[in-house]
Specification:
Elements lengths: L2 H26 L5 E14 L4 E13 L6 E13 L2 E9 L3 E2 L4 E6 L2 E6 L3 H12 L2 E16 L2 E18 L4 E2 L3 E10 L2
Antiparallel strand pairs: 1-2, 1-11, 2-6, 2-7, 3-4, 3-5, 3-8, 8-9, 9-10, 9-11
Length: 191
Amino acid sequence: MSKTCTIIIVVNFFILGGAAVFIAWLADRIKFPQFDIDQAALNSFNFTNDNIFSVNFIFIIRSHNIDSKYTIFYDHIAVSVYHENYSLAYETLGHFAENDRRDDIVFTSHPTAKNVLIKDDHVAENIRNESKLRHVDFEVMIRVFVRFEKKGWNRKQYLLKSMCSPVVIDLHTGKSIKRTDCYLDNYTIEK
C-alpha cells in the first residue's frame, strides 16, 4: 500500500470519527427549560418618605421543558426580586417537582419585602417616580437546580439563572400588565 493511500485512510478515519462524535454530541445535547412569568401581582405596597419599602409579591411562573429526551427534576428553586439590580425580596421554594418531556409546570412564588431600607438614592427616587405614575418595573431572577434524567440514568446537575425583565405591575390593579418572558442569564454545572 502506498503512502498516499495510507494518508487518505487515516484522514478519512479522523473525519468520520470526528463527524460521529459531533453527531452524538448534537443528539445528546441538553436543552434547558424556558421560563416565563404568566402573571405578577402585589399587595400591601408601601414606600415611605424615608425610603422604607414593603410589599408582598405573587408570581405565577411557568417552566416549559423543550427537551423531549429528558425528564427534568427541580431540586431547589429560588425567586429574587430587584429594582435596577437592587435586591428587594427573596423566596426559596425548595424541592418542587418533575417536569416530564415537553410538559409545562406552573409554580407560585410569594417573595416579601418587609421594611427594606433603600440606601441607593437613585433607586429610591426611581421607585418614587414610578409609584406616582402608578406602575413599577421589577426584575425577577429565577435560580433553579435541575437534574436531567432519561430512563433512570442521571445526568449532571445544573444551576440555571433566568432573568425576567421588565415585570411591570400596575399599582391601580395590583397586577402585571402582561406576561414576561425570561432569558437564560447563565448556567453552571454543579456535579
